[in-house]
Every structure is written in C-alpha cells, then in structure tokens.
Structure prediction request, 359 residues.
Amino acid sequence: MPRSMFWVFLGLLLHIQIADGISAKYQQQSSSSEEEDSNWQCGTDFITKAMSEGQVETDCPTLKVPINNCCLAHDNCYDQQLGRKYCDDIFCRCLLVATEPAEICFKEDAPLFCSLVRQFGEAAYNASGPLARATPPPLVATTPETRGPNSSLSTQALKLLNLFSLFSRHNLFALFSPFTLFTRPDPGLALKGSPQPTSQGSSLHSSIRKGSIIEKMPESHFLRDNMLVAVFVALLLIGPAYSVRDWWQCGSNDANRLAAYESIDGACSVLAEVVNNCCLAHDHCYSRQLGQEYCDDMFCDCHLIATKGWVICHTVVVPGFCSLVRNFGDAAYKASATPGPKALLPPGDAQHQGDSTHS
Prediction:
C-alpha cells in the first residue's frame, strides 16, 4: 500500500468541521504549552492537528509557518462563507506556493490535501457559517469482550467509532466502499488450511452494535463507512508504544503496518498469516509489474476469500484495504518497478508468471 495511506485518514478529518465538539475552534487552554500548540491550525481537533503537524515536521519542517497560514486563511474563508469553490481554490494555490521549496510536500502532500478538501469539504463549509452549529449526540461506547492486552485498543476504537458517526456517511462511503469486488474470481486463490470462523466474529459484531449510537442509525453501510477509519486513527495514536511483528507486510510504513496489523488482530487474529500472504503476493505482483489493475484485483479477491465467514474482517476491514490500493496504489506501482523482496504468489496464477509485460 502506498505512503499516501497515512494522509487518507488525516485528510478525512481535515477541515471537516461538523460540530463544536470536533471543530478546529476549540477554546484555548490556559497553560503556556497548550497555547503554543493551539497556534497550529491545520486540523479539526487535537488528533488531526498533531498528525498533520508531525507529518509536516517530517517532510518540510522549515515550511510550517506558511503552510499553517494557508490553513488559517482557508478556515477564515469558510467562516465568512465566501464560496466553497473560491475558498478551496485559494487553499490549493496557497499550499502549492508555500510548499514549492520542498519536493515531497510540493509533489505529494499539497496536492493530496487539496484533493481531499475539494472532495470532502462540503460539510465543513456548511457547518462553518455563523448559524451553522451542530450539537453532537452523546458519545456512548460499548466495550467488547476483553481479549487480553489488546482489549484497550478495541475500547478506544469503539469510542472513536461513535465519534465518527458525526461525519457524513456519504463522504466516508465514497472512499471506503469497495469499487469492484471479485472482478476476477480465481478458484486457485482459495487458501487451504485457513482457520474457520468461530463465534468470536459474530459476538464482536454484536458487541459493537448493541447499546451504542450505531444501534439508533439505519443499517445501510454504517459499519463499513466508519469502522475502518476509527480503528486506524485509534491505532495510529497509540502506535509508538506498540511494535509490529517483523514478518507483517501489509502497509507502506510503520504507522500503516501497525494499523493494518491491529485491525486484523482485533477482528480475526487467527487469519493474520493468510492475510499477510495476500499482501506479500500483492507486493510481488507490483514488483514484477504485472499490471496494476490485475494486481489489485488479485489482492482484493485474495483477501475476501481468506476472510470469508469472518463478519468484521470480511465486510469492514478487507473492503477498506481493497479500496485503498485501488485508489492510492498508482505511485506504489510505479515505484515498485525495481526488484523487491521475494514473495510467493498464491496458487492458480501460473498464466501470469514470467509475463512481466502484462497490463
């Protein structure tokens, strides 16, 4: 999965100001350290501000001030309701000018920020007027069954899941719903020896819905729209304190790998190895340049077959993985042209082995 995955979760929150409780206009605290932190305005709350600031400090730390000024100008433009398209155009141009001295920020971060604001900024603009103030419903998190040291991760994810119910389900669904599933069924991808589902999957699914704010929402695609985002954000926050197993290859960097690993570990831990094999096969397919569409189709089919019968993994986590590689895999595919780590393709892929020109 490409490096841009990190920005997906950050961008989904960036400038989407739905309610006072999650808007960028938090009241400043009295302590001097908190006052200093409040100067950074790229984000909607302490979570997204910390994530965006950390990324800018990594990619182009000397450009923090001009980038922050772009965010301030964008917020002000939204507040004055000067027209969403106009505000977004100004924001995009401002970012391109501000990040021009730094190649990574200029070529990757600024364009993606711009794209996300254009796609998901409608709710933020509507909520930024002087009369547009939403009252968030109470956040009621349901704690799932304790499962050892990771139980606290599930609890945090569920709390964030309820928080994310404040966001437009249409916006989230536009990104995380699978675009084309089982587009190239391959019976050879069936992973022999995959553990069969137990009652754990269904009980976790029940515990997530029962008694939470989700119970009051229409069935639709609510879990698929919101769960993956909540889980990844929760795990990115606690990531530094948890190490990912060395063999885990689903993800483009440490933060992404951790989030992906814990998503699987929390919903279908016994499938971690076979899910990882799908990621290894996908990396190998990319490195051999067998065609991005073909590799992504194989990746999605492999995961869906591997997790069949496991409700959360099959209907929430895996469709999210699939959608991410389809939408943000272009850069990773182009960068994988050089030889990479060796990995075994799943059986039934013989017709593509040795064909490095497949497209």
Remarks:
- The two ends are 19 Å apart (CA to CA).
- The mean pLDDT is 62.
